[in-house]
């Protein structure tokens, strides 16, 4: 595999701009975007009858404030937002979240909330799906005068429809992942291991400008392809191996997610060629249904029906897809029992799979932008198996 560090961005743009190099126009746009999100949140908080809202989930804190540190809570009330963090992030928080009142905690975040909480009326909502029991007990014990109300999905609901800048970051993250996948498959040789291939994919992503991987890379060869979430192992790859490769990375804080079947120096056996044709049919059937206002379960059902026509619906053992954004798994959920409805400008995966225990498996995954009357496939790579050239 070629060195990934020197001249790639000349051909494909400057990659992800760091916050240190962000220009004034980008900074203004980012601040305005965060302000809009905070306004929408306060409207939802008020409509639910809450006097305030404590956001503790890291992705939600970033979405609402722009703060990317690992330790920070933000408290929203009628007067605005108060960001509480520790001394490690004093300068970073001031730079990334200039619209927030900043409190740098001398001890824990819980005690630092006393003053801004005193200005709110009860009840105050908190993210009950995020806090541990210990953290919740500490919070409630330190602020006994506050009436706390647990809630879930308040911010996540706002995150479903993506803004233009968010979609651009997702596109960039997907471009990086596809470039890394193409390059790594081109250098794939017998004798490598699953874990070694995963490492090369991740190294290539970094070289193309990824901030980090979006999730643990999946590489599963041969019979292990029947495990949808197989962890790469020390199995040595051999000529003719069929691999499931599922990967994604982050750019600008946003994720990508792609799965392709990869064949190592050989032809795809007729049985698996048929399976891939079935997956392609399921993908196309799902895409024909995707549009704003469509029930997520209807998209899942379309894919299952298509696989059923090939006699393979029983081998599809997971949901069809999920939303992608600041997190690689977020709303909406495209599943048989999902109550979600597709929203315009959301980004979702379409990933039908077939898993045959003792034999292997295949999955075909694309990223899709939901539009008012249809969908745009964001992938540049075709929905076909990939072959190493050796």
Shape summary: elongated
Number of domains: 2
Side by side, the strands of the main sheet go 4-3-2-1-5-6
* CATH topology (level 3) name of the largest domain: Creatine Amidinohydrolase
Task: Provide a count of the helices.
Answer: 12
Q: How many beta-strand runs?
A: 20
Using only C-alpha atoms, the radius of gyration works out to 23 Å
Structural class, please?
alpha+beta
The CATH architecture name of the largest domain reads Alpha-Beta Complex
CATH evolutionary superfamily of the largest domain: Creatinase/methionine aminopeptidase superfamily
Helix content: 25-40%
Main beta sheet: 6 strands, mixed
User: Would you identify the regions where 5 or more consecutive residues have pLDDT less than 50?
Assistant: 1-22
Any idea of the CATH class of the largest domain? Alpha Beta
Fraction of residues in β-strands: 15-25%
Give the termini distance in whole angstroms. Answer: 13 Å
What would a concise description of this structure say?
The protein has helices spanning 8-12, 24-47, 58-65, 90-96, 109-112, 114-118, 133-142, 154-159, 164-186, 194-208, 270-289, 296-308, and strands at 52-55, 72-77, 80-85, 101-104, 124-127, 148-151, 212-213, 218-221, 242-247, 249-251, 254-255, 258-263, 321-323, 330-334, 347-350, 353-356, 360-363, 366-371, 374-377, 386-387. With 390 residues, it is α+β, with helices and mostly antiparallel strands.
